[in-house]
Amino acid sequence: MLKNIFISFTVFLLFLYLWFINISPFNFKGTSIKDKLEDAFSSSSFIIETTLFSIGIILSIAFFALLNHIISTNMKVISKQTLSLPFCTFTSWVISVCSLLGVSSYLYPELFYSHEAWKSPFFLYTCIFMGFFFLTISFWLKKNRLNFIIIVTPFILSYLIPTISISYSNHSQLNHKNVFIIGIDSLNTNLLKTEYTPFISEFIKSATYLPNSYTHVARTFPSWMSILSGDYPLTNKARLNLTDFERINVEKSLPYYLKQAGYTNYFSLDERRFSHIDDRLFFDSTIGPPATVGEFIFSKLLDIPLLVITSDLVIFNFFMPQIHNNRAAWQTYSPEKYNEKLKNSIDIDNTPIFLSSHFTLPHWPYKSSHNESNNKDLYDKYLEAVKHVDTQVQDLISFLQANGLLENSILFLLTDHGESFAREEDMPANNFNLVNLAGHGTSIVSKPQFNVLISFKEFKGSFEVSHTGINSNLNYALTDVAPTILDMLGLNPTTTFDGDSVFKVKSQRLLPVESSLKPMFDKSGNLNVSGTVAKNASLFEMNTLGQLVLKESLYPTIMKEKQRGVIYGKWQLSIYPELDNAIFITNLESYKLYNYDSFDNNELKKFLLSKLCTLYAPEIIQSNIIPCLNTKNFLEVS
Fold this sequence. Notes:
By secondary structure, the chain is of the alpha/beta class. Helix content is about 40%, strand content about 10%.
């Protein structure tokens, strides 16, 4: 057995070495790797996560060592000792490694070691049959029976035990309705068509749909904090991804008020690398991969066949949750498997449920484990991802309906932000050669980045409630979601919100918008991962939970670089500090851009600038918002 453990460890190191010398290195310019490592190993959470992952590796090595011990000893016994033990050991490892490569290639064709040759039916089935034969023959030989049971137990626990049946109580008898918010990442609202989003498009037809809706910052964490808090990023302080929770007022939130009312709160996110919402926001359960530095590091090891197979088993997944059901580790991410994990995580009892679930498949790189878009350009890859996420949403809503959870409920379907591909149509006409960046949160005049989906249904029993009196021609924002839900539930929070219940909005309001950090793109519009990491690595540090957070000391500097704007009716005023504080006016209906100085409606442009300066008054001086400093607007708001 010791010999097999040594061989298993050697095989693991060989896979690791060959993978490591072939991966693209990251160049952390201006960042001390030594400092980053010191920060990491000074965190008890990171040490615990590293220890657990290391245990997972050790168990995986031992698992394959035991498997080969069974095969080699059974092979020697069945040959009546005519075959030498070294020959049997060598043969068993050839069989197991070939099976390992074949199975991992078949299940995860995008991994580093995956290849069409490994998953050819003859090769794969032959290796699996031989391995299975020499394992199961343990019972006939009356040898290695206990070892065989140890080997098959993780598979039984993972695949053969039926899902525990869900007991359902009549939620119509509960004091409050179930509340569901289903979010979709990076969905350009121009794709809300039957061709691309058949289920969502059909949902919208019978739902309350607010087409003129916007996010305040086109990034996931600020958007979801707006959804859950009902406040502008300017108010709740979540203005960038990975904002430290120490800056944020977490008590004034939708999950807080629902928990006070007796709800069980769930938050599901399949990619938490840049959005670390968890129990600090009064969620009872967080579904998804870890939101830690360890996740970023250890998820890279998914390419090692030894780990990718074992980490998918229940026992091993406890130690290595970073590798599977993690959208960031897209090579092993299965939309269907993640949905099953999500559905099995919901405990249906006599308490009302609040579920916030966000699917990130349409986020770059627009791929999953069995993507069909390798030969397509970037935009076509995106379209494939949009079609797949439409199916994910349909599957989740079908589950809620099949289990009676939609009876007496409120269901919101929304997006956190849109997506731009630096095409001509992604920017307004007459844009004066304004920098046209792909992605989201990069340019506030790009309507495809900031326009979002907000639609909802309310159910009384199994019947949909028809809502009237909502003016769909007005502008709305993600900050209106929390006040609307609380209003529909008849809950009266003790605090006020920047957003409003959509039932109470009777006229146009001012909506602030602002940009975020800008990733780097190559000439083809693809994200330059290495360049982006190098550019932004020095902006973050690790907190006591082992999570990356934005350095507090850099917050004022980053705030100065933000584009700021305000939307009122069909008009948007935008200030671009990177263009010498140029000011632009956008007609959102005709999608045309105007230079502030040449815009002929003096009263309107002065009104919009004055309101922007009023909204951002607390940071005019610190962030050096020149247009507000250079006009009487500053005198009016100071």
